[in-house]
Design a protein that fits this description.
The chain has 225 residues and is α+β, with helices and mostly antiparallel strands. The protein has eight helices and five strands; from the N terminus they run αββαααααβββαα. Pfam families: RNA_pol_Rpb1_1.
């Protein structure tokens, strides 16, 4: 699994104002992503830094289960000393990671609305879609291991998309027929991502009301996933 740092190592695809109709530096058809006419060119990845984290459809169940096990306020496991809780102790001793996460989730999910054993604050019955990226980043490695996550390959914050990789042109070549050029469906989707991302960044930069920001976040989530 790629983390945001390794994904953002290539050049960024993020035009400053709009998406041009012809290839230009910074757009989804950036020439630096590869040359289709050169058979020796393997193509190169770019990236888009998203204005807000987005759920990855492949890991949304794992994200939801892990978030239900940690305190919304202090990001520690909602249970204090595991050794004092028989059910939690039994769940945390399961060897198979996926089964352990399932067992920990089933044991701790009932803590919603109750007090955290660490900070003493009550857990909200529901958590909105914003802010979960920061919450995941501060989950302690020790707690992630207890939940069954292998932090060497899948830290909690890696389960959400904050940096979207942009594949080389070789993966999504343009189609030329009858003197016309048609872009690949994946390229059209990337253009939608970039447009939505720019709109959301502008809304955040200008201090737009929450409802406007949320309205511009929805297309970004839809295009990314």
């Amino acid at each position: 699994m790629l983390n945001a740092l390794s994904t953002s190592a290539p050049s960024e695809v993020s035009p400053p104002t709009a998406v041009p109709t012809t290839p230009a530096y910074g757009d989804p058809n950036d020439p630096r992503l590869g040359n289709l006419q050169d058979i020796s060119c393997p193509g190169y990845f770019g990236h888009v830094e998203l204005a807000c984290p987005v759920y990855h459809q492949g890991f949304i169940d794992m994200v939801l289960k892990s978030l239900r096990c940690v305190c919304y306020h202090c990001s520690s496991l909602v249970v204090g000393d595991i050794s004092n809780d028989f059910k939690v102790k039994k769940a945390s001793s399961i060897t198979k990671r996926k089964t352990r996460l399932e067992a920990m989730h089933n044991t701790l999910r009932n803590k919603a609305g109750k007090q955290c054993d660490h900070c003493g604050r009550h857990q909200p019955p529901a958590i909105g879609g914003t802010g979960y990226g920061d919450l995941q980043e501060i989950v302690k490695d020790e707690d992630a291991r207890k939940l069954g996550l292998d932090i060497a390959w899948a830290k909690p914050e890696w389960l959400v998309v904050s940096v979207l990789p942009v594949p080389p042109l070789h993966v999504r070549p343009s189609i030329h027929a009858g003197g016309n050029t048609s872009e690949d469906d994946l390229t059209h989707q990337l253009i939608n991502v970039v447009k939505s991302n720019i709109a959301l960044k502008d809304a955040i930069a200008t201090g737009a009301p929450y409802m406007i920001q949320e309205r511009r976040t929805a297309p970004l989530r839809s295009s990314t996933t």
